[in-house]
Amino acid sequence: MVSGFSETGWLKLPFDADILSWVTSVLPAARASMSDPKLAHWWDCEDTWFVGVDALPNDARGAVGEGPALEGASIDIVRALFREWPPLHKAQVSVTRPGYPRPRRGESEAAFGYRLNRAAAHVDGLKPAGPPRTRHIDEPHAFILGVPLTESHPQAAPLVIWEGSHVIMGQALRNLLCQVDPEDVSKVDVTEVYAEARKRVFNDCPRITVQAKPGEITVLHRHLLHGVDPWPDGVPGSERMIAYFRPECTGGVADWLAQD
Predict the structure, then answer these.
(1) What SUPFAM superfamilies does the annotation carry (predicted)?
(2) Domain of 56?
């Protein structure tokens, strides 16, 4: 399972009682964040998506209040896989509701079509910025760790990934930036290369739906193309909630670009 991570770019680790204990501990705070007036701006897509960046009030160990740290056999595997376990930031609390997606505030018709038909597929850390919608490497995450907080129907806005896409995306960016001074890498506009690599991914890589339950975790390579599918009419449930951690590479952008 772990040995194939370098080829697939993702893995799902099996049930871990320590992870479930952590979920039970943080769930009240995660639910409270959804109704916190200070975080109301994170409701988008006509209230079908709570983006929830930094919404969980956890400490650097992942603990909320007097609750347990985010630890267990699954975390030991992640730590060994990446050879590091950086201090944790406040987790994103990503919540989708029936009917997702509706258009985001200010989203163009084309962008909404991409969200609807391509699951808003993206590589984390390359956010489009400004009216030109240009992309730069501005958030060099070490990996993406998803911890389901609620059980949900398999068709209730699940995570989708393009298996093996991290190889294509990573190589395209390295080819562009290999001659750039490390201090200037984050200044380079990668929009065109990113878009071309993404087209290759859609053509060459299998699209896979990933479903996990509380007590399980998912781990994504930092270059993996991924997104969220719609929540179709008639699919039961009231919400799908996942906590995401994206600790930054200790070596910054240089480590983010490295092939591993």
Answers:
(1) Clavaminate synthase-like
(2) 2-248
